[in-house]
Amino acid sequence: MFTHVHVPACSPSNTNIVIDAQVPGVISSPIFPDGSTDSSCIWKIQAADNFRLAITIEVLKLNGVDDYLVIRDGADALSPLIGKYGPCANGSLTLYSSGSSAFLQTVSATFSVNDKLRITYKPIESDTIECSHQGGHPANLCGTNTGLKGLSGVIASPNFPNNYDAKETCVWTIDAPPGYRVQFTIQWLGIEDHRYSRAGTCGDDSITVSESRGNEDSRDIIKLCGCQRLFSFVSYNERMFVRFDSFKKNNWPGFYATYRALTPEECPAGKTDCAQKNTGPIGFSAGGQVCTTSEIQVVCRPDYVEVSLQISDYPGIIVNDSSLHLEDKACGAGYKDAATVKFTFGLEDCKTEQEDDGKKIYYKNKLYLKAGQPSNDEAITRGHMQVIPFQCGYDKKINISKVSYNARSTFVKTDAEGFGNFTYFMDMYKDASNNERVTEFPKEVGLGQKMYFGFRVESDYSDLVVFPDVCKATASSSFDSTPVHLIIEDACSRDNTLEYQYGQKSQHNFSIAAFRFTEGYDDVYIHCQLTVCPANDDGTRCARGCQPSKRKRRSEEDMSANLYIGPLKPKIMTEEAAKEHSYAESDSGSSMVLIVGVLVGVLGTVAIGLIAAVIIISRRRNSSGNGASLIVAEE
Fold first, then answer.
1. Residue 495 to residue 172: CA distance in whole angstroms
2. Peptide bond before 268: cis, by omega within 30 degrees of 0?
3. Do the beta carbons of residue 595 and residue 578 sit within 8 Å?
4. Where does the record place the ZP domain (predicted)?
5. Cα–Cα distance measured from residue 585 to residue 600, given in angstroms and rounded to the nearest whole number
6. pLDDT in the model for residue 213
7. Residue 28 above 90 pLDDT?
8. In 10 A of CB 609, how many CB atoms?
9. What is the 3-state secondary structure (H, E, C) of 205-267?
């Protein structure tokens, strides 16, 4: 689901790597000359505030017996130790930082080109991770008679995810309800095998899986050591035993395993090939707590959300729109196959709720599903409803906006006596050349990025010019609504990022940096009130141009209209794109900062979605009998 950024490989010239974990990434094997001595690599990973890091060791194979990988819960080498892992392990292990940073280091006495390392990292919002001691006891609890009676759980080597000590003996008894069977799976394994004993005997450290206490009746299932293989097994009845023994303490990673009780319907007595059930993704905190995230995959796109789930994670799930839907029951899955169900919906669709904490805008929804194994007794049911809340959080400092409909441009066609037919236009352009119009919306614009616009008047009367009375931003489609941020007033600049040069002409172009109101308003509307004048009349406001110190007055022959396009709504964009054309923050007195990209058009009295509106212009004599004033109205 995620696209991972590949971190540059560690090499002799690049051994101290700082990672800005805004998106998921991959750390791969170091690149050193074969036989290099005392090689070391450091990775410092930093996520945004209010995020934690999920660090997953996917491949660990170091050839030196004392080579290791160390992971610390913080930004430097003095941070608390999560674990020390070496020289190898099989499976995958996910570790969760307690804060927004982590420190990783590999140390090799003699580097080998056969060393293999792959670690992925992912920033995760803190409130989406739950860490606890499942079943009321730590997974790494070690004793000679530890009883486990839950329907599912986790066991791990002592001190896990840190190293286990010497002379450890742990025995776990797993009891499922009568008639059930136990599925046991080792998910991660890296323990000593034969440094101090004969090869092939697992005489140093070992894991033994048995269906009888004490292994007295030849029902030992398997004995494991080293890091060569994982193991999964379904018990013959409702009880099984797991034993772990260690000899000396080294850097070995240890192990963790999951168990799950299978119902008689899932695995009938005597059946030897019961299907293995997914126990779901888990990880560990630095303190050894088992951590889980939602069993759904949520991908936060700039203007929509993707939610996926694996059918195998929900035994007996009913895949139909009446049982599997979002908060809005009309929002069912858009994609289904034998393995996956996916929902795709807009940020404001499906009864999605918004919350604003001042730093982020959160879009929250819930997934409703019905699951449960069928029963052979009609008097009982194992079906249940499950509600899974989820959210996407967008940093307001990298928000962008969109228009809510697809409009190439907005224009107003008029017919005035003495002037003939003429039409106001306003367009957005792709760059400063103002040649290629933006024709596809929504259009994503980043933080402080330049946006290019033009307004013009076209007429069969060639000597007309257009004048911007005012261009401003408000939070609604009403021209007179508040809050207000002025952009242009009487052809004068009112925004310190505005690039605009007034002249008596039929077409004007300007650019401005993207912005957003800071008072919690979701929408931004950009309004422009335009006036058309005859070019050969020195008494018009078009002829006067920018004169901010003089009182505004309307010329007796001016033609005026107000238009708008909107609303414009927040969206997410990468910081890299936002930095391409950055500006300083506006110092105007209005309640806004330049933190959002917007799409802008002419705004005012034309209804949303309007492609063309006829403006009725009536000539009305003033008291002196000279010239005419205009009344503008919608039809």
1. 70
2. no
3. no
4. 299-549
5. 19
6. 66
7. yes
8. 11
9. CEEEEECCHHHCCCCEEEEECECCCCEEEECCCCEEEEEEECCCCCCCCEEEEEEEEECCCCC
Does 558 or 423 have the greater pLDDT score? 423
The b/e string for 432-471 (b: 16+ C-beta within 10 A; e otherwise) is: eebeeebeebbbbbbbbbbbbbbbbbebeeeebbbbbbbb
Residue 586 carries which DSSP code? P
* Beta-sheet strands, E only, within 404-539: 410-416, 420-429, 450-459, 464-474, 484-489, 492-493, 507-513, 516-517, 524-534
Give the per-residue pLDDT at 461. 52
pLDDT score of 16: 97
CA dist 351 and 401 (Å) reads: 20
Higher pLDDT, 633 or 377: 377
Distance of CA 506 to the CA centre of its chain: 45
Could you tell me the two tokens for 300? 């936060």
Reported as type and span, the H/E element at residue 593 is strand 592-593
Q: Measured between alpha carbons, how far is 445 from 524 in angstroms, rounded to an integer?
A: 14
**Cα end-to-end distance, the chain, whole Å:** 51
Six-digit token string for 362: 């959160």
Give yes or no for a contact between 530 and 458, defined as CB atoms under 8 angstroms apart.
Answer: no
Mean pLDDT of 563-583: 44
Yes or no: say if 101 and 123 are a contact pair by the CB < 8 Å rule. Answer: no
**pLDDT(57) > 50:** yes
CB of 508 within 8 A of CB of 467?
no
Cα angle 380, 368, 52 (rounded to 5 degrees) comes to 120
DSSP strands (E only) in 88-151 = 88-91, 93-96, 101-110, 116-125, 130-132, 146-148
Identify whether the C-beta of residue 191 lies closer than 8 Å to the C-beta of residue 205: yes
Q: How far is CA 137 from the centre of its chain?
A: 33
Spell out where 514-588 has E strands: 516-517, 524-534, 559-572
Task: State pTM to two decimals.
Answer: 0.54
Q: Cα(410)–Cα(425) distance, rounded to whole angstroms?
A: 6
Question: What is the full DSSP assignment across 289-310?
Answer: -EEE--SSEEEE-SSEEEEEEE
In whole angstroms, give the CA distance from residue 509 to residue 511: 7
Place of tokens 């307004």: 455
Which pair of tokens denotes residue 454? 């033009």
Helix (H, G, I), strand (E, B) or coil at 115: coil
pLDDT per residue over 278-304, tens digit each? 666 689 998 899 988 756 778 887 778
Distance of CA 163 to CAs 83, 94, 286, 343, Å?
A: 7, 15, 12, 42
pLDDT of residue 56: 96
Q: Under a CB-based contact definition with an 8 Å cutoff, are residues 363 and 392 in contact?
A: yes
* Cα–Cα dist 171/213, whole Å: 9
Q: What is the DSSP letter of 585?
A: P
Largest CA distance in the chain: 118
User: Rounded to whole angstroms, what are the CA distances from 332 to 306, 324, 335, 343, 633?
Assistant: 12, 6, 9, 7, 45
Q: Which amino acid is at 47?
A: A
Provide the pLDDT for residue 184.
94
Query: Each residue of 24-63: b (16+ CB within 10 Å) or e?
Result: bbebebbebeeeeeebebbbbbbbeeebbbbbbbeebbbb
